[in-house]
Amino acid sequence: MVDNPADQPAREASGGLLARARARFAEDFDAAFRNDPAARSRLELVLAYPGLHAVWAHRIAHALWRRSALRIPARVVSNIARTLTGIEIHPGATIGRRFFIDHGSGVVIGETAEIGDDVMLYHQVTLGGRTLNRGKRHPTLEDGVVAGAGAKILGPVTVGAYSRVGANSVVTKDVPPGSTVVGVPGKVRTAADAPLEPEWII
């Protein structure tokens, strides 16, 4: 059977999409291996890391979500991932490259959340809303943000690039880039404050 030249652009677009998807999956994989000192092998990551599985499932669900006719299948994929991993990521959430969820259990990421590149979340982090109104209602985490276990970041706030959110902190206001925020309610610590111990994260 002779290939139809008219089909060539579609084949090239499909091939490009698959190549980009493979590259994103590989980056997520490398980020997990790099950021978790407990990881003993790459096989262990593939078989036994629910945070990685949840991110991969989200990438598929989000691709479906971007087509309005496929939003129900997108929700089905995300619900299956939630059942299997204990991590709930709405398929509408926008997630950048090299994203890693460590431990993972209890993480919730809302529909209008936006996450930059090289972000890391620990277990029981919530990127939630504070209103029933439609529109932007979930947080934006810029590149390089780390949120410690149990952190709650609520509403359409922005956590600036390379900031750190301490374990169990509750953030309802914007956080400047390069900051550390701790407490309930979350308070930004300046460079003049005493440094936090490494254990603040987990």
UniProtKB/TrEMBL annotation:
InterPro entries: Hexapep, LbH_SAT, Ser_AcTrfase_N_sf, Ser_O-AcTrfase, Serine_acetyltransferase, Trimer_LpxA-like_sf. PANTHER family: SERINE ACETYLTRANSFERASE. It holds the Pfam family Hexapep. It comes from Naumannella cuiyingiana. GO terms for biological process: cysteine biosynthetic process from serine. The lineage of its organism: Bacteria, Bacillati, Actinomycetota, Actinomycetes, Propionibacteriales. GO terms for molecular function: serine O-acetyltransferase activity. It catalyses: L-serine + acetyl-CoA = O-acetyl-L-serine + CoA. This is Serine acetyltransferase. Belongs to the transferase hexapeptide repeat family. Pathway: Amino-acid biosynthesis; L-cysteine biosynthesis; L-cysteine from L-serine: step 1/2. Keywords: Acyltransferase, Amino-acid biosynthesis, Cysteine biosynthesis, Transferase. NCBIfam families: cysE, EPS_EpsC. GO terms for cellular component: cytoplasm. Its EC number is 2.3.1.30. SUPFAM superfamilies: Trimeric LpxA-like enzymes.
